[in-house]
Amino acid sequence: RRRSIARTGPLSPLSLAPAMSSKALDQPTRSFPVSTSAERAAGFLAASVFSLVYVVAPVWLLAALVSVFASGLTSLSTLLLWAPLLVSALLPDTGGSISPIVLCSWPVRQIPKYFRYEEFHEATDRELRATGKSYVVGAHPHGVFSFVGVCAAIASMNDAEGGFGPRLAQHVPTAAASVLKVFPLLKDVLGVFGVIPADGKTLARRLQKGSFVLYIGGMAELFRSSPRRETVFLQGRKGFIKLALKSGADVVPVYLFGNTTVLKALTWGPLADLSRKLGVSVTLFWGRFALPVPKEVRLTYARGRPLGLPHIAEPSQADIDHWHAKYCEALLQLFDRYKGTNPDYKHKTLAIE
Fold first, then answer.
1. What is the pTM of this model?
2. Phi and psi for 285 in degrees, rounded to 5?
3. 276: confidence class by pLDDT, cuts 50, 70, 90
């Protein structure tokens, strides 16, 4: 039976002070409060591409399969439907290399303005880079699609002085379900974020070279949150702690306020069950105008300080449990410190299951 935890209510050049309970930052690290109507419209259209591809890609594939049986393998309609799918399947994984072109373009740079996006960094990009360490950046919750994560990538890539700059996708890729690496069309659009498979061997190799973002709770979180309570799946997810301890990496908690409000999803039935199994959103979802496009809600990114994990080549279960408990507590504290910065979260509670 799952237990539930609920709660209401000097830097050196080579190291960061470990996470600890503290007051919220008074001002955001980065914010996008001022924009024109044209910029917000452009941001809305650019953001909509990322959620629409979740609908277009599987529907297109289904239509192509149906056309084979309905019209024949060599019919014009079948060839036209299969052509883009085959081109996508044959294209190499170029997401990381084209990432600066896409995410630094003018339309995409307007996405944070559409959401009046804000970031609160208790450990800044510059501080994390200066340590030379590898980090597992634990992101919560997943949502239908992580528009907060999109905004964070755009903000950091376009901040050459204080952010990671245009090569963010290479420096800090995002771990995701393996299906995203091979599904036609999806892999090309979402690949701009430098997606890597979320299996243990791949992540262990990655930590030898650098950091990555990991949505620890995965798609399962989408089906447990409500207007009054956020839920993250974390109690039984301890592999990332073991991985960090063994590799000498550290762990950084991040909460993504708005990932569960920007889109709504059907949380029951066969499509919901399939989404849980695949690890991607194939359930029905909707947002603005009752379409699969993002609502105009406030998005907020809150990043805590690294936990300060030691390097233990062969961690015991007690070691893993100890640091996992510290991570859970740090995430709860982070949520409480910054939920007041987002109007949709002021009265919400966070549960860890």
1. 0.90
2. -145, 160
3. low
Task: Indicate whether 12 pLDDT > 70.
Answer: no
User: For the purposes of burial, counting CB atoms within 10 Å of the CB of 341, is it exposed (0-12), middle (13-18) or buried (19 or more)?
Assistant: middle
How far the first Cα of the chain sits from its last, in Å, is 10
Give the type of residue at 135: Y
For the chain, the three-class secondary structure string (H helix, E strand, C coil) is CCCCEEECCCCECCECCCCCCCCCCCCCCEECCCCCHHHHHHHHHHHHHHHHHHHHHHHHHHHHHHHHHHHCCCCHHHHHHHHHHHHHHHCCCCHHHHHHHHHCCHHHHCHHHHCCCEEEECCCHHHHHHHCCCEEEEEECCCCCCHHHHHHHHHHHCCCCCCCCCCHHHHCCEEECHHHHCCCCHHHHHHHHCEEECCHHHHHHHHCCCCEEEECCHHHHHHCCCCCEEEECCCCCCHHHHHHHHHCCEEEEEEEECCCCCCEECCCCHHHHHHHHHCCCCCCEECHHHCCCCCCCCCEEEECCCCCCCCCCCCCHHHHHHHHHHHHHHHHHHHHHHHHHCCCCCCCEEEEC
> CA-to-CA distance for 187 and 35, rounded, in angstroms?
31
CB of 198 closer than 8 Å to CB of 214: yes
Question: Can you give the pLDDT at residue 309?
Answer: 97
Pick from 102, 109, 110: nearest CA to 39: 110
- CA dist., res. 323 & res. 6, Å (int): 19
Structure tokens at 81: 């439907």
Alpha carbons 18 and 315: distance in angstroms, whole number: 19
Q: What is the pLDDT of residue 325?
A: 97
CA-based nearest residue to 329, from 16, 6, 100: 6
